[in-house]
Specification:
The complex is a heterodimer.
Chain A: E1 12-14, H1 27-31, E2 37-39, E3 46-48, H2 58-62, E4 68-70
Antiparallel strand pairs in A: 1-4, 2-3
Chain B: E1 10-20, H1 25-36, E2 42-45, E3 62-63, H2 74-84, H3 91-110, E4 136-137, H4 144-154, E5 158-160, E6 163-170, E7 176-183, E8 189-199, H5 227-234, E9 239-240, E10 249-251, H6 260-263, E11 269-271, H7 286-297, E12 303-306, H8 312-322, H9 330-337, E13 346-350, E14 363-364, E15 377-379, H10 390-410, H11 419-434, H12 441-456, H13 462-482, H14 488-513, H15 533-536, E16 538-545, E17 548-555
Parallel strand pairs in B: 1-2, 1-8, 2-5, 8-15
Antiparallel strand pairs in B: 3-4, 6-7, 7-8, 9-14, 9-16, 10-13, 11-12, 12-13, 16-17
Helix pairs in contact in B: 1-4, 1-10, 2-3, 3-10, 5-14, 12-13, 12-14, 13-14
The chains are: A alpha+beta, B alpha+beta.
Amino acid sequence: MPLASYQTSVPVVVDDAKCIADKGCTVCVDVCPLDVLRISDMTNKAYMAYDECWYCMPCEADCPTGAVTVNIPYLLR
Amino acid sequence: MSLDQIVDGLSEVSCDVLVIGGGTAGPMAALKAKLKNPKANVVLLEKANVKRSGAISMGMDGLNNAVIPGYATPEQYTKEITIANDGIVDQKAVYKYAQNCFGIIEELDSFGIRFLKNENGDYAVKKVHHIGTYVLPMPNGETVKKALYRQLRRARILISNRYMATRLLKSADGRIAGAVSVNTRTAEMLVIKAKAVILCMGAAGRLGLPTSGYMFGTYENAANSGDGYAMAYHAGAALANLECFQINPLIKDYNGPACAYVAGPFGAYTANNEGSRFIECDYWSGQMMLEFYNELLSGKGPVFLQLKHLHPDTISEIESTLHKVERPTRGLFQQGRGVDYRSESIEMHISEIGFCSGHSASGVFVDDNARTTVPGLYAAGDMASVPHNYMLGAFTNGAVAGIDAMEFADSHDFAKFDAADVAMERDRVMAPTKREDGIPPNQIEYKTRRLVNDYLQPPKVTRKYELGMRRLAEAREDMQERMIARNAHELLRALEVQSIMDCADMAAHASLYREESRWGLYHWRTDFPEKDNENWFCHTLLSKQNGKMTSEKRAVEPYVVPIADDEKDLYDKQRIRATA
């Protein structure tokens, strides 16, 4: 069966201007309990790769530059 | 390299004690094992990252079951939990917890975790339970994980993050020999030989589907997909009272605690749409949940946590706790809804079902030394059968498990497992990556959990269960024959779905076995609406025997703390009676 991709608006937003993943930081990716954040090959910044979020906050709380914002997932907002 | 690309690989390491799960019980188990024998190797394996994993990823607002000298006694606590859990309690383990937990509080205090004290320097314990006083706030509760992590580093515990354990290994004579695991980012497999293994893998929290429809918007940390329950089952360990589901009263849609344990002692209470109280006590018991459920359906709902009557300063104090620890996005959620606690009550609802002994009693069967029925295999925390044990129970019983497991490791050599078992497990784990075409794990998971909601959540109807089991069997066939994983992350989800499916089957099997109603809403069987002490005053143990799911009765151990006849039903009287 062919697969289609399914669009969702993701709850975790990263401010590229503040994110220092391009300098080697991986804190938000490291701490996420659901392992849904990654560093982009294109921008070298962190982003939410999988919409599987418990809106729990370690990524935002532990980010050294305040680049990460956790929003409430749309379905339960 | 493309995202989460699958790497083929298999390696093997060994250790004395392997602790699986780095949330709450796991770090304490690892620490105590290592302190017991500093020369031994202790490995702490974690699917996520020990720094922020598990139910207390963002800390905890307080202890819900602290037995503090001067406020409560181990006898009183044991009695309360026995009554709250409808009598089905092996008291020895609960009593031991009640005796040990104060020492653990002092130890946590020495780690830098603070507990609320009054002006005299005494612990400021609050009353939430029906009978006794056991709730102790933690003013810097957001620092718990950091404090634990410091201790783990200091003790030189070997931490392996991002490895998901998939199956336990045993010797021909049935002793534990280690575990198979898989790296969640590369799919490389790692076999860990161990003399003793402690399972601290949390609740089965991704069993039911939250009413929001968002699969990861669960009450429990969504990483807690019941892997420990599934692994224990496949290793032949017994699981106790799985029909005693976890169902909790939560903030509607947000699906986190509202939280009456925090706000109750300040004067907040649960009320119906008329603003009236309808339950005697906010402590989470099945009996209370049944009244909550009845109220929602009676036309007197919605149900609210009422705190707008409190002084604004008090509300600010409650708010500062609720919006800082455990689930800090509560503040953001309420802000988005335009809800200010000063003018509006918090709309509540009941959660999806799950297994969790932290709040109910469904767990891998353990004795008072945290031993499972498999020699060398231990369990602690939300997944072990000591009822209502909460965070402090995870710490305290984790400590018990760590010490006993190290003693076991010190007196045993490695058990030998069959290499064929590893090969077979490797094939099972990797199977979804070998298919070119099929169904992705998220669809199988959604369907499974939707079936759990439709057919398994209480009230439990025999006919519905039979239909549900047929539908689940069809979903299982799809899972086994057609599920695909196109990268390592998807493989992690594919493995989790298999745990979820196993837990759904166990929930159904265990519920059908107990032919009575007990624990209020948790096991309300419409075909057997009464509590039947004559035939069912017992544990039920579920296990895999000759490859088949089997349930049997197990007698409740004689009580250590006797319960008078007129005390036995104290938790049955949760509904506030109209006064003349």
